[in-house]
Structures are given as structure tokens and as C-alpha cells.
# Entry
Amino acid sequence: MKNIKASGKNRCIEMAKIFFNNILTTYLKKVYIIIALDIIIDIILLFLAFQFLFLLYLKEITILIIIASTTLLIFISYIDYRDFKSNTIFLKNLCKRDNLIYSEKKNSISCKINDSLKICLALESDRIYITKIDKCESITNDTNDFYCARFDNGELLDKNDMRIFEGYLKIINENNVWLCKGKSIVINNPKNNRENILKSIEYLTNNVKLS
# Structure
């Protein structure tokens, strides 16, 4: 508490100042409490209002969510189908001498460009494998860890902006898995890499010797 030493008129003025300061401090404290309580009450009322609106329009909100989800699913399915159709037409144009073969087990589409050159589209991984077979040695067990080709023993080379595997690999031939020797090029996202696919086919068809 403030010590008041003044007397007379000055003392009265000093006491008045202290009185009004105390009133102002008390008032501000009450105002802060009221504001805080008002904010809390507003938040609670807003939450209750949202709950009421949600319950009131629950059916409409559910229908909107179902419509939005269905629309998104249809759009994604359409994009997938469009890419699938585009890739299969592209493969069909490449393999003019051979029909497209779908492997349900591997979820892949393949065809032969010529007697030794095979192209395979892995639908799940969205990759194209272009494989040139030098010779196939024997039917082998399916390890169930690949779609079109599995590289067993060989080396991976980078040449002319292409990643090429050369060595022993497993490939799907009709319903059997064969252990073969040859070269294979893997290209991701075939829809946007048509030029690289054509370059890879030309590279393998020309039988360029790897150094």
C-alpha cells in the first residue's frame, strides 16, 4: 500500500488518485474475466451450432460425401483406363505380327516384335520391359516376385541414356517361366516415354555390341 505523507488538499488529491486507480484496476480485471468468459461461451455455442447443423443435415452431408467419393473414383478409373488403352494401342502397333497376350497371374500384357524381341507391360508397376532373347535354356520355377522379367545374373549398364541389363533373366513365355540369356531395358511411365521406348527397340534390334 502506498504511504501517504501529504496533508490537507494534497492529501485529498493523493487519496482520490489511489481510489480511482484501485477502481480502474478492479474494473479492468473484471473486464478481462468477462471477455475470457465471453470467448469461451462463444466457442461452445459455435461448436454446438455446428453439431446441430451436422445432425440436422446429416443425410444431405452423407449424400454429398458419397457423391464426391464416387466422382473421384470414376475420375481415377477413367484416367487409369485411358492410360491402359493408350499403352495397349501403342503395344499393338509395335507388335504387328503378334497378338497381345494378357497374363492374369502376372497382370501383364506382352507381345513379340520379332522372333527374339519381346515387349511386356507390367500393369501394376506401370513399366515396360523390352527384352531381346539370345537363347532360352530351360523352364524354371516361378519365384512370384516379378511381373515381366527378373534379372538373375548379369550386369546393369548405362549406355546412350538407356539402362540395359545383360545376362541371365527369367521371363514369362505363355504359361511358363523360362531362364534365358539376353538383354533387357526397363522404362518407367511408358505413356510419357514413347520416344525412349522406340529408341530402346532400335538399340536392341540393331544388335549393338556392348563394350
